[in-house]
Amino acid sequence: MKVVSVEEAVATIPDGASVLIGGFMGVGAPERLLDELVRQRKSNLYVIANDAGVPGKGIGKLVDAGLVSRMIASHIGLNPKAQQQMLARKLAIDLVPQGTLVERIRAAGCGLGGILTPTGVGTTVEQGKQKIDVNGKSYLLETALHADFALVHAFLADYLGNLAYALTARNFNPVMAMAADTVIVTAENIVPVGVVAPDHVVTPGPLVDYLVANG
User: Fold this and answer.
1) pTM for the structure as a whole
2) Choosing a second label site near 22 at 20 to 30 A (CA), which of 154, 168, 209, 215?
3) How do residues 18-28 score in pLDDT, each as one tens digit?
4) Is 65 in a helix, a strand, or coil?
C-alpha cells in the first residue's frame, strides 16, 4: 500500500478503464478522486455504481463532463443529464436491481462466478440469461461484476490502509474494495497505525493499493 497524491492516484487510471465507484447519491462518494478524474479528463470510462448521482455531485460530475461511455447502476432517476445522454445514445446504461447489483459485486470479491436470483424471472430481464431450476424454483444466473479499479471513500484510514466507515456513508464502499484489481482510497481522517481498533476495521489494509494523502 502506498500513500500518494490525488494526482498520482488518478494518473494510474487509463482511458477506457472499468471503475467501481462507492457512494449512494453522493453520500460516501470519493469526491476528490472524481474531481481529479474530471481535471485529468479520463474518458470512455465504464462505471459500475449504485447510481448516476446528481448534476455536480458524486458520479454526476463525470456525467457532466461526458467522461462515461457505459454504466451499470441500480437507478439514474435523479440525474436528468444521464437520462439525456442515454436517450441520445452517448451513454449506455444497464439498469440492475440494487440487491442484484451489490451481490454481483460481492460475488466478484469472493471469487465466485455469479449469483442465482429469482429477481427478473418471467420478465424481459431474463432474456439472454441462463435460467436454473433449484428445488422446483427458477433462478437467473447473474454473473460477477469485477473492475480494473475501485474508488472508495472511508471515514478513517491508517497508514497500513485499514479502513472504517461512518454510518450510511459505508454503503457500497466495502464490497467494492474487494472486487477490483486496484483499490484507491480517500479518507476523511488518516491516523497512525493502532488508532483504528482491530474490531472496527471493515476493509483490511491488504485490499488497499493506494491511499490518497490529505492536505
Assistant:
1) 0.94
2) 215
3) 999 999 999 99
4) coil
Residues 6+ apart with CB under 8 A from 130: 140, 141
**Signed CA dihedral, 65, 34, 71, 155: sign only:** negative
Kindly report, residue by residue over 186-198, the tens digit of the pLDDT.
999 999 999 999 9
Q: Quick one: residue 49, left, alpha or beta (phi over 0 = left, psi -120 to 50 = alpha)? A: beta
Strand arrangement, sheet containing 131-134? 114-117, 137-143, 131-134
Q: Which residues of 51-75 are buried (b: 16+ CB within 10 A; e: fewer)?
A: bbbbeebbbbbbbbeebbbebbbbb
Cell for 122?
418471467
Q: What is the DSSP letter of 146?
A: -
Phi, psi of 81 (to 5 degrees): -65, -40
What is the distance between the alpha carbons of residues 182 and 198, in angstroms, rounded to a whole number?
A: 23
B/e letters for 123-143, b = 16+ CB within 10 Å, e = fewer, are eebeeeeeeeeeeeeebbebe
